[in-house]
Design brief:
Helix content: 40-55%
Shape: globular
Number of domains: 2
Number of strands: 10
Order of helices and strands: EHEHHEHEHEHHEHHEHEHHEEH
Structural class: alpha/beta
CATH class of the largest domain: Alpha Beta
CATH architecture of the largest domain: Alpha-Beta Barrel
Strand content: 15-25%
CATH topology of the largest domain: TIM Barrel
Mean pLDDT: 92
Distance between the termini: 18 Å
CATH superfamily of the largest domain: Phosphoenolpyruvate-binding domains
Strand order of the largest sheet: 1-2-3-4-5-6-7-8
C-alpha cells in the first residue's frame, strides 16, 4: 500500500477518478473532509460505492475513515460501511486499547449478521499525546489491527508544534514505527498538507520509508506518483533480496544459520526483510520477481 488516496465521501464525482488513479488504496473519508451538514449524505454515498460492481472488481485496497468512536456519527458510520468489500476500517483519534476492542466486538456482530466471511481489518490513526504514548498497547489490542498511521494536524496544532520541523516529525515517526513493530503491525505515513510542495512531500515520504513505513497518505491525486515511486523497492534492493533468498535456501540445505551475500553477513532479520521486499516486487505491475 504505497499510496493511500483520500476521497471525500461527500464528493461522488471524484469516486470514478479515484478508482482510475494509480493509487494502491482509496480511503473514503466521512470525517474531516465532510461538513457536519453533509454527514448523512456522505455516509449513504460511500455505502453505495462499497456495493457498486466497479469497486467490487477493483484490486485496490478500499478503506473508509469513519468518525471517531466518541462522535455522535460513529454508530451510523459503522453500520453503513461494514460491508464485504471493505478492506480496512480507519478509526481516527484512538487513545486506548479499550476503544479498539469495543469496535472489534461491534464489527464481529455486524459481520455475523450480514454474513461477511472475511474479517474487516482496522487501521488506527494516532493523533494525540496520549495515543502516541499508548500506541504499542493500542496496536496490540485486537487481531483485527493491521496498521497504524499518524495524524499530525490534531497532534501538533493544539501544542503549537511547527509541522515543518523535520526533526520533530521524524522522532514521532520513529516512535510510532517502534510501537507498531512491538505489536507486529505496519505503519502508513501521515498526509502532507502542502499540495503544491511535491519536493517536501517526497522528502517526508523518503524519511518515512527509511524508518520502515509501507506507504504514505495522499490528499491530492498529484501526490500519488511520488508516493508510489518512493515506496517502491529499487531495482538494486529487489536484486539483492532475491540473491539473499537464493543464498538462504542453499545455506538451509547445509545447516548454516548465518551466511554472507556480496560481503554482507545475513541472518534471520535480514532474510525476513529480503522476503518482504520480494513479496512487494511480485505485486508490482508488472511483477519484478
Amino acid at each position: 500500500m504505497r499510496s493511500k488516496l483520500f476521497v471525500p465521501g461527500s464528493r461522488p464525482e471524484l469516486f470514478p477518478k479515484a478508482l482510475a488513479s494509480a493509487a494502491d488504496s482509496l480511503s473514503f473519508d466521512l470525517e474531516d473532509a465532510v461538513a457536519e451538514t453533509a454527514k448523512d449524505e456522505a455516509r449513504r454515498l460511500v455505502a453505495a460505492a462499497l456495493r457498486a460492481p466497479e469497486f467490487a472488481a477493483s484490486p485496490k485496497t478500499l478503506i473508509v475513515r469513519i468518525n471517531a468512536p466518541a462522535s455522535p456519527h460513529f454508530e451510523a458510520d459503522l453500520a453503513a460501511v461494514a460491508r464485504p468489500r471493505l478492506d480496512l476500517l480507519n478509526l481516527p483519534k484512538i487513545e486506548t486499547a479499550d476503544e479498539v476492542r469495543a469496535v472489534a466486538r461491534q464489527l464481529t456482530r455486524l459481520e455475523a449478521e450480514r454474513g461477511i466471511a472475511r474479517p474487516i481489518a482496522l487501521l488506527l490513526t494516532i493523533e494525540s499525546p496520549r495515543g502516541l504514548r499508548c500506541a504499542a498497547e493500542i496496536a496490540a489490542a485486537d487481531p483485527r489491527v493491521a496498521g497504524l498511521q499518524l495524524g499530525f494536524g490534531d497532534l501538533f496544532e493544539p501544542l503549537g508544534v511547527d509541522r515543518a520541523q523535520a526533526a520533530a516529525i521524524q522522532q514521532i515517526q520513529l516512535a510510532l514505527r517502534l510501537a507498531a513493530g512491538e505489536a507486529g503491525v505496519w505503519c502508513c505515513d501521515a498526509a502532507y498538507g502542502a499540495i503544491k510542495d511535491l519536493d517536501g512531500f517526497r522528502a517526508e515520504a523518503l524519511a518515512a520509508r527509511r524508518l520502515g513505513y509501507i506507504g504514505k497518505s495522499c490528499i491530492h491525486p498529484s501526490q500519488v506518483a511520488a508516493a508510489n515511486e518512493v515506496f517502491r523497492p529499487t531495482d538494486e534492493e529487489i536484486r539483492f533480496a532475491l540473491r539473499v533468498i537464493e543464498a538462504a535456501d542453499k545455506a538451509a540445505a547445509s545447516g548454516a544459520g548465518a551466511f554472507a551475500v556480496e560481503g554482507r553477513m545475513i541472518d534471520a532479520p535480514f532474510l525476513k526483510r529480503a522476503r518482504a521486499i520480494a513479496a512487494i516486487a511480485r505485486r508490482l505491475d508488472p511483477p519484478v520477481a
